[in-house]
Every structure is written in C-alpha cells, then in structure tokens.
Amino acid sequence: QVQLVESGGGLVQAGGSLRLSCAASGHTSSFYSMGWFRQTPGKEREFLAGISWRGGYQEYSSSVKGRFTISRDNAKNMLYLQMNSLKPEDRAVYYCAAPQSPYGITPSTSSEYEYWGQGIQVTVSS
Fold first, then answer.
1. Cα(5)–Cα(88) distance, rounded to whole angstroms?
2. Residue 26 has what pLDDT?
3. 79 has which bridge partners?
4. Which residues lie below 8 Å from residue 121, measured CB to CB, with a gap of 6+?
5. Rounded to the nearest 5 degrees, what angle is found at the Cα of 26, between the Cα atoms of 23 and 29?
6. Residue 60: which of 82, 41, 75 has the closest Cα?
7. How many Å apart are CA 44 and CA 17, to the nearest integer?
C-alpha cells in the first residue's frame, strides 16, 4: 500500500514556474515507478511524466517535454515535478501516482496506476 500527498500548487503567471511535490508513504514506496498526471473538467486524466524507481529513466508527454522535469529523492520518499514556462493551458488538477507493484516498468497510461494522490490545483493566468 502506498499513500501519496501532493503539495506546491497554486496560481502563477504565464511564463512562470512552479514545483510540485509528492510525499509517498508505505515501507516500499521508494521501490515504485512514479508518474504525474493532470486533469481538466470533462477530459480524461493526461499522463505528463514518469520516472523509474531508481530515477534513471524518465518519460514525458509531448505536451510538457522540455518544460517539465520529473525527479525523485528516494531517501526522503519524495517525487517532484518542476514546471517551467507555464502556459494558461497548463491549468489543471495535478496528480501523482504509483502503479500496483514495485520494481516494474514505468507506465504511461492512467489505467496502469493503482495509487493516486488527492490532486492539487495549478492555475496559470495569462
């Protein structure tokens, strides 16, 4: 069982930056691949970035590649998403997630993730 709690969201101007954090708990949480998603009303949850459990592999969606960076600190059981050059269309509720089993591949679809945080709002003003 993995519990996830996001923090760091808020309001930022277009072109600005935010760093989201995700605190993971559970005695094996550092052994899970992790991912970031976002969702806007009426749309499906969108994969943004994933990272392997050791942190050596990262994957990004085309919508955020080059602007967002996923990272993790396993000693602190923390996952991060650094978001730069934010655009109004980045406005959404952002979620961190972990798959059902540790050590596996890094999934890129929401159906492959089992554990979810409660979500945190990011708003980008134009």
1. 24
2. 82
3. 22, 72
4. 9, 10, 92, 93, 94
5. 70
6. 82
7. 24
Residue pLDDT, tens place only, 101-113 = 888 889 999 999 9
Q: How many CB atoms lie within 10 A of CB 20?
A: 24
Looking at the chain, the number of H-run helices and the number of E-run strands are: 0, 11
- Spatial separation of the C-alpha atoms in residues 26 and 6, rounded to whole Å: 15
Tokens 């945190």 sit on residue: 120
* Kind of pairing between the strands at 113-116 and 120-125: unpaired
CB 29 within 8 A of CB 77: yes
Q: Are 50 and 68 in contact (CB under 8 A)?
A: no
Which position has the token pair 């970035």? 49
Tell me what pLDDT residue 1 has.
83
- Please provide the distance, in angstroms rounded to a whole number, between the alpha carbons at the two ends of the chain: 40
Token pair recorded at residue 74: 């396993």
Letter for the amino acid at 76? K
